[in-house]
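Worked problem 6 (solution included).
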Amino acid sequence: MVIETGQVYYNADSQWLLSLVLASMILGVSLDINWRDFKAVAKMPKAIAAGLSAQFIALPAITTVLTMLLDLPAGIELGMILVACCPGGSISNFVTHLAQGNTALSISITAMASALAIFMLPLNFVFWSAINPETAAMMKSIEVSGTSLFFNLFYVLAFPLFIGLTIKHKFPVLANTLHKLLKATSLFALIAFISIALIKNQTAFMSHFQLIFIIVLAHNALALLLGFGAGKFSKLSIRDTKAITIEVGMQNSSLAIAIVFTQFNGEAGMALISAFWGTWHIISGLLIALTFRRFGNKADADIGTQEVSP
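Solution. The predicted structure is:
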């Protein structure tokens, strides 16, 4: 089934403002990360490796195969690949805590994923989008250079992350204040851009609601299963498996949305996928957390409840 999707409302004059929003999002995330979060990796390398492999290798690869099997608009397929290439979001730490999983492991994976995303997000996205003939053709049709995209994303991700980590290390009080401010302002600005797009293109969005909802549901379920499978395959504890399941299943779709508007002029299919992911993965994450709390407590008791701290 082929469904045509047009271009969502996008004001090119707002490009600089969107880039600023994207940079502020990354800065806000980095201000909430400590250098000791990276040191904690040495204490649990097996669990960290399992989570990052599922997130940065397995999920983009399987997503690309899935897009090649389905008959979907190229923009939607490109959006799926973009979301799959994004790191996990910081909300996963809260959800892992709610699920009584290994919160320290969740924080460490988030920190490592955020740092690795500087290279892995643009590299993964350029590589996997070129594998699918449909998405590769679309990249050419909208005149997106893989090399330019890589370096653009690298600069936008790398500098705010480095600045945020430096401020957090040298001025922790200032970092906490800035984090709270940027968390609110960047989120508000992003919601404002999305709301404008939805209002001005409500007919196009609603006409594809059912299809997009089903795709996001299936894609998110796949991500959660990959995380759970990675934990089981690596023979990790229940609490570690909970953390990895949630980390892989809760992608930073806000980052994906910002990239769609800054790098792809608000392409409709990509915007639809990213926006729906942004809502649904929070719901699915909370449902998984409640499920883990209800059915995982006995297994947790069997292996103990001691958590490794960063």
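Discussion: Confidence is low (pLDDT under 50) at residues 1-10, 302-310.
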